[in-house]
Write a structure and sequence with these properties.
heterodimer; A: 6-stranded antiparallel beta barrel; 9 strands; 22% strand; rod-shaped; B: Rossmann fold; 2 domains; 6-stranded parallel sheet; 8 strands
Chain lengths: 349, 338
C-alpha cells in the first residue's frame, strides 16, 4: 500500500514534462524596410541618398536572417562609408564648418561604417544635445573610437542658410536627414511582443503558482540562481521549492480504534518541489502530520502530492496505521459545509 | 520632433504614485527661483513618466502578512487539541508583521525583496516593459532617466540585462544592442547599485553595460552622491566613464542626507539638470549658491560628519555586516539630532 502510493506520486510528478513557458515566439520574422521620414527642409537632397542607403542596408539585413555568412561586409561597408562622405559634403556645402569643427567626428564615422561587420554591428546616429558646460554639441554614436564631441557655436553666418534658424537647429535638421539610413535596424529591434510575453509569464506565475512563505520564496530564488543570474531578462522560475510549509489538513484514518476516523491536523511539509507550470501542475513534498487521537500515534510521516498548485492530497504512516489527508483548500472543492474553513481558504489563496 | 522625456524611479520605502514627480518638480522649481529664474514654463517643455515599484512591494508585504494571518486563524482551530499554541503562533508571527508600517518593513524589506528574491526580476521586467513602450514613443535619444537610492539598483540591473553587447535581433531574447540605442542621459542619485549587487550577484555595476559610448546604454552619465549619506559611503559607486560627471555634496541642509529633494536642490546639480535637460541658461548661479548655503546645518552636524569620515577612512570596513554595524551607530546619532 505504502510503496504503491509513493510510486503513484512519483510517477505523476514525472509524467508531464511539457513546459509551456519555454515556448516563446522569436523576436521578428519579417523585416520592415520603411524609412523614417525627414522632418527638415535644408537637407532634402541628402535625404534622397539616405533613402537609397537605407534600402540597400535593409536588403542586407534580410539576407542576414538566412545566414550572416552570406553578407559581404566589405561591400556594405563601402556603401555606408560613401554615405558618410556624402553626408559630410552636405554639411560642407552649407559651409557649416563656420559653426563647428566636425571633421574628426566624420573621420571616425567613415572608419566605423567602413569596417562594417554584421556580427558586431555598429550603426552610428547623429545627435545634437546640450553640453554639460554650455551651449550645444554634436556627435555620432556609437563609434569604434570616439573623438571629442564638437561644440556648435552660434555664429551669425547660420542666418545666411536659414533666416529663421540658429546653427543648432541646422545641425538638428541634418540629423533628421542622416539618421533614417538605419531605419530597418531600428524597425527590427521591436521587443514589444517578447516583453509582453515575458510579463504575462510573470503575471501567470504570481497568479496561479502555489502560495509560498517568504522562506520558500528565498529558497526558490536561490535554487534558480543560475536562471536569474543570466545576462538577460528572464521569466519566472520553472519550479518552486517547498520548505517548512505548515498546512491545516483534514485527516482520515479508517482503522482508528477509538472511532476518531476524521480529525483536523497540522501538516508540515519539510522539503519538496512544485512544478507549477506543467500541463498538469504537480508537486511533491515529504511531510509530517500531527493529529490528536486517543489510541493512535499522533505523529505520522509520509508525502503530500500537490495538484494544480492549490490542491493537496497526502498519506502518512502512524506507526501501524495509515492515514490519508487533504489540505483545507480541497475541502472547498468538495463543498464541505464548513463556512469558516471556506473563508480561511479564500483568504489564504 | 518628439519631446524630451524624464523617467523617474524612486528609492526604498513607501512612495504613492506621483510622489517622486511632485518632489522632483518642486525641487527644480525651488532652485530655479533661487537662481532668479522667474519664467517656469520650461517645466512644460519636457514630458514625465514615473516607474513605481513601491505599490507592488507594498502589495507583496501585505499579501505575506494576510497569508500568515489566515494560517494563524486556521491553526487556531487546532488549539486545545493537543497542539502547543506557542508553536502554532511562532509558525506565522514573523510574516504577519510584514503589514506593519515600521521602518524595517517599509524600507529594508524592500531591499531584501528586491535583492534576494525573484520579485527583483519581476520588477526589472516591468521596468523594461514600461521603458520600451516609452522608447517607441519618444525615441531613445530623447529619454533621460533619473533614479534615486534603491531605484539606482533597479535601473542599473534592468538596463544591464537589456543592453547586451552580443545582442541578436533575431533570437528570442528581448534586448537592445549596446551603443546603438543609447538614451540621452542617466542620472543616479545616491547610487547603491554596488551595495545591492553584493546581495543579488548580478553584473557588477563597475563592469556592466550601464555606461556610455559603444559598450553602453547612455550618451551621458551623471552620478550624484552626498559625502555624508550613509547609503553611499559603503561600496561607493565610482566608475571612470567617458562623458560622465560626478557631483559630491558635502553640505548638510537636512539631517537626512539621503533625501531626494535635498539632492536635486544642490545648486550645481540643479544647474546641470536645468541646462542639460531643460536647456535653460542659469545666469545667476552665485546668488543661488549663496541662498543655498544660508540654511545649511554644517555646525550642528559636526559629530555625524566626524563619525562618517572615520568610517569612510576605516579600511577594516570591507564587509556588509561591518558596514551595517557602523551604519547603525551613525543612524542613532542622526536620530538624536532629528
Amino acid at each position: 500500500m505504502t510503496s504503491k502510493t509513493l510510486a503513484l506520486c512519483l510517477s505523476l510528478t514525472l509524467i508531464v514534462l511539457w513546459h509551456p513557458s519555454s515556448v516563446i515566439a522569436s523576436k521578428n520574422t519579417s523585416i520592415d524596410c520603411t524609412v523614417a521620414p525627414y522632418n527638415g527642409t535644408l537637407f532634402a537632397s541628402l535625404y534622397e541618398t539616405t533613402e537609397e542607403t537605407a534600402k540597400t542596408f535593409c536588403q542586407a539585413i534580410m539576407r542576414s536572417t538566412i545566414s550572416q555568412n552570406n553578407i559581404d561586409n566589405t561591400h556594405i561597408g563601402s556603401i555606408l562609408s560613401d554615405f558618410a562622405v556624402k553626408s559630410e559634403q552636405a554639411l560642407d556645402e552649407k559651409k557649416l564648418i563656420n559653426s563647428a569643427d566636425y571633421k574628426a567626428q566624420f573621420k571616425a564615422l567613415k572608419r566605423t561604417l567602413g569596417n562594417f561587420d554584421i556580427k558586431k554591428i555598429m550603426m552610428p546616429e547623429f545627435k545634437v544635445k546640450p553640453s554639460m558646460t554650455s551651449g550645444a554639441e554634436g556627435y555620432f554614436e556609437p563609434l569604434e573610437e570616439a573623438p571629442n564631441r564638437f561644440k556648435i557655436n552660434e555664429v551669425e553666418y547660420c542666418r545666411t542658410i536659414s533666416s529663421d534658424s540658429n546653427c543648432k537647429a541646422i545641425f538638428e535638421d541634418f540629423a533628421s536627414a542622416f539618421n533614417p539610413y538605419r531605419s530597418a535596424y531600428d524597425n527590427v529591434y521591436d521587443n514589444t511582443k517578447l516583453l509582453s510575453e515575458l510579463g504575462e509569464q510573470w503575471d501567470n506565475f504570481l497568479y496561479i503558482s502555489k502560495s509560498q512563505t517568504i522562506l520558500e520564496v528565498w529558497l526558490t530564488t536561490w535554487a534558480n540562481y543560475r536562471h536569474f543570474k543570466k545576462d538577460h531578462l528572464v521569466g519566472p522560475p520553472g519550479f518552486q521549492v517547498i520548505a517548512f510549509h505548515p498546512q491545516l489538513v483534514y485527516d482520515s484514518m479508517s482503522n482508528a480504534s477509538d472511532g476518531s476516523n476524521q480529525e483536523l491536523g497540522l501538516a508540515v511539509e519539510w522539503i519538496g518541489v512544485n512544478f507549477w507550470n506543467l500541463k498538469i501542475p504537480l508537486g511533491l513534498s515529504f511531510t509530517s502530520i500531527y493529529t490528536d487521537r486517543a489510541n493512535e500515534k499522533d505523529t505520522g510521516h509520509g508525502a503530500l502530492l500537490h495538484i494544480y498548485n492549490h490542491y493537496g492530497v497526502g498519506w502518512a504512516r502512524h506507526k501501524d496505521e495509515d492515514s490519508f489527508y487533504i489540505t483545507i483548500d480541497l475541502l472547498k472543492m468538495f463543498e464541505e459545509k464548513k463556512v469558516e474553513y471556506d473563508k480561511y481558504a479564500k483568504s489564504y489563496f | 520632433m518628439p519631446k524630451q522625456l524624464i523617467i523617474l524611479v524612486h528609492g526604498m520605502g513607501t512612495h504613492p504614485k506621483g510622489e517622486i514627480l511632485r518632489e522632483f518638480k518642486k525641487a527644480i522649481t525651488d532652485r530655479a527661483k533661487g537662481f532668479g529664474i522667474a519664467d517656469l514654463s520650461f517645466l512644460q517643455k519636457v514630458d514625465y513618466a514615473e516607474f513605481n515599484y513601491s505599490e507592488y512591494f507594498d502589495a507583496i508585504r501585505k499579501q505575506f502578512a494576510e497569508n500568515a494571518k489566515a494560517r494563524k486563524k486556521g491553526f487556531g482551530y487546532l488549539a486545545g487539541m493537543g497542539f502547543e499554541e506557542k508553536l502554532l503562533d511562532q509558525l506565522t508571527t514573523f510574516e504577519s508583521n510584514f503589514g506593519k508600517d515600521e521602518f524595517f518593513y517599509t524600507h529594508w524589506l524592500d531591499v531584501i525583496l528586491y535583492s534576494t528574491m525573484y520579485f527583483g526580476e519581476k520588477v526589472r521586467v516591468d521596468f523594461i516593459r514600461s521603458f520600451e513602450k516609452l522608447r517607441k514613443r519618444y525615441d531613445h535619444k530623447n529619454i533621460h532617466i533619473i533614479c534615486h537610492s534603491l531605484g539606482t539598483a533597479v535601473v542599473h540591473d534592468a538596463l544591464a540585462k537589456y543592453y547586451r553587447t552580443d545582442s541578436n535581433p533575431f533570437d528570442d531574447i528581448p534586448d537592445l544592442k549596446t551603443g546603438n540605442f543609447n538614451i540621452a542621459s542617466l542620472w543616479t542619485f545616491a547610487n547603491v547599485s554596488r551595495m545591492v549587487n553584493l546581495l543579488n550577484g548580478l553584473t557588477d555595476p563597475l563592469h556592466s553595460t550601464v555606461t556610455t559610448g559603444k559598450d553602453g546604454c547612455a550618451s551621458n552619465f551623471i552620478n550624484i552622491r552626498h559625502k555624508y549619506d550613509p547609503f553611499t559611503w559603503f561600496k561607493t559607486y565610482d566608475r571612470n566613464i567617458e562623458n560622465s560627471k560626478t557631483f559630491e555634496n558635502t553640505v548638510f541642509k537636512k539631517i537626512n542626507t539621503h533625501d531626494f529633494y535635498e539632492y536635486v536642490t544642490e545648486p550645481r546639480v540643479a544647474k546641470a539638470i536645468l541646462s542639460f535637460i531643460y536647456e535653460v541658461t542659469v545666469n545667476d548661479f552665485e546668488k543661488g549658491m549663496a541662498d543655498y548655503m544660508v540654511e545649511s546645518l554644517n555646525q550642528e552636524v559636526k559629530e555625524v560628519k566626524g563619525l562618517i569620515d572615520a568610517a569612510v577612512d576605516d579600511l577594516s570596513i570591507n564587509s556588509l555586516k561591518a558596514a551595517i554595524d557602523q551604519f547603525k551607530i551613525i543612524q542613532k546619532k542622526i536620530d538624536e539630532l532629528s
